[in-house]
Batch of 3 targets.
Target 1
Amino acid sequence: MDNHFKAEVLSAAKKIGIDLVGFASKARFENVDPQHNPFSIFPEAKTVIMVGKRICRGTLRGIEEGTNFTDYHMYGRNWLEDEFLAVAVYDLVRMIEDNGWEACPIFPNPSELGPQGVSVADGRPAPNVYPDFNYAAVACGLGEIGMNGLFLSPEFGSRQRFHMILTDAEIEESPLFEGSICDGCGECAKSCPLGAIDMQDPIEINVCGKVMKVARIDYDLCRSCKNGTEGNRMHESGKPDRIAALCNRSCMCHLDEQQRTGNKFENPFRTRDTWSIGENRK
């Protein structure tokens, strides 16, 4: 296991503007079913690398004020995933392959989708295999899944997006995140105008022994939300994108106020009453 190469990967990632990098061994995915296991895509791989870039807080400003939605779509979502992060991952893949190791980039797709094709051979899962990026980010030691069902990092809370790299380089894995970002305050559920978040009987998610409690979320209601929720742009039946939604913006404000994230700001994000559209069903 080459720790010197790990340092080189981290140094290269920093130079190209990547904010979050975590590593996980194949062993951390041994209990993941083949249809969602990244090692089904590259069986000889030894390491998963999760690569993240932050969603700048200012990209959410127009949605918080209810006056501009388009620019978040670009800087916080479409361009961030398709261009800024994709180019950074491509450059990191090139660096890894320049050192003689194969590196397979994986774009985020809805992991809840079933097979979309027919297996090409006995014993192989059907295409397409879509890894669970939340699981992988936890397995790579980058944070936890919060009560609101979104991945939270200790630096940015929910404000990041990830791509994945599989490599046959054996790189020392990151320790699992042992702290807690989500404090179960319930601001996500309280602020949801549609009552889509039920904290009464949370689901337990276990990733490599790290157990997290997640509220039961009615994603059909989320899809009808007009308060910053976006449809899944990869597939209409995938989970909606709730990072800019009122529920998560309220979570973000709470984490900022309680100083539970590392990215600090001079001024609070929310300074006036929030707007909302829809009937509160709670």
Target 2
Amino acid sequence: MPPAITLKHEEGYVVMPWQDYKEEGFSAWDDRDGDLTDQVERTVMKDRICYKAADSAGNVTVIYRDIPYDTGYREAAGKDFPEIDIDDPNAQGKAVYLTFDDGPGAYTEQLLNTLDRYGVHVTFFVTGSSPTYEDMIKKEDAAGHSVGIHTLTHDFAKIYSSDKAFWKDIDQMQAIIQKQTGHTTNLMRFAGGSSNSISTNYTSGIMTLLTKQAKQKGFQYFDWNISSGDGGSEGDMNMVIKNITSQLPNQESCVVLCHDTKEYTVKAMEYLIPWLLDHGYSIQPLQFDSEPAHHGVQN
């Protein structure tokens, strides 16, 4: 009798079209030769896997497994996803750095779950605005995301009153990050970005001074070259998706400004992330030597 091959199936396991299949397990047994699992020849095809086992008498068994690709996300996204007509010839492999400011907050854990589901990593520029959610910083770091400082208070009048006031605020936020993650960070984003003009209402020329000091203190500060448009008081999921996707072809490396304090932005990621991956973009977390997308300092 030919050997028998048994395929194991992990309940609920699916593979996104851009992911590699992770073997769920198999075994092979022959009535005379016993366990032949280690001798199974496994060949990965386009959308199937071939398993072949032979016993000492020359009997051969071949069976196939269809890779459980999940295309359901396309149908789900289609319900709310706006029509997008962009031509980005450089999409394949283009880096997209999704960054989230002003958290952690009430929607951060939901976002972390979405990121984990799709196996991507992003960057969080955190504040101390919501102490209740400080433990999310630890979860962000533990999940492999980059964590940077976005000030403790995000109070423009306070932090831009002087360079001493600014760095005192930064040091306090750094202490929180170290407490939560066990290490410090050398990534930061200025409240309002390095080109903000509101800071001049409190101290003339302070952004020119602070950007120089940031480098001296060993920080890399990051601005952005794509905005989701969710910084205001109004917006919706489709607005976020349209704003981001329409700007992608204009940049070689895309540093995207978002806020995980906005529920509709977090919801938008459910649809935007698989769309980005399916169209060949590479979602990455910022590192010290990543494209900083610096704005021109105005004062």
Target 3
Amino acid sequence: MEIKALIYILLTGIFVNNYVLQKFLGICPFLGVSKKFDQASGMGIAVTFVMLCATAVTWPIQKYVLDANGLGYLQTIVFILVIAALVQFVEIVLKKFIPALHKSLGVYLPLITTNCAVLGVAINNITDGFNFIESMFSSLGVGLGFMLAMVLFAGVRSRIENCPSPKAMQGLPITLIAASIVSLAFFGFAGVIENLLGM
């Protein structure tokens, strides 16, 4: 397996195929927790960790249990159960060791269970035909891309709050417009990665 291919999978997960800004998965925490930098980065780290763990568990389950026994139709249910268990584990660890972050994330931490980006990366790794190592690199890239989007948008939102805007645009409307502009900026990465790696 080429290192270049793994780097390509990683970088495209972060920049080109950003799940929040390009595929529009995981919008709930993106809009809900991106008001402050520390909350955004904490949520990004938690989601990245859950994505990596979910992929490490769901890929072997898919290949060696579901596919081997002709139970592929149970994929979504099984993956959701695995992700829910992992999120409970993360919540217990944060509550015990980092209570301030646990308190600041509030209701959004259990919502990682229903975060379609986590389920999406687990399913897409299978449908894209990635092997285990490629799936882990893909999940790491998607997780880092999620965290990058969260942190960047936290900075954008802090600037928006300090700038005057028309009354009709305040709140969610200006937030969605800012999110669309940030999303457009990521389209510029589409050809850069291929040229950089010569692929």
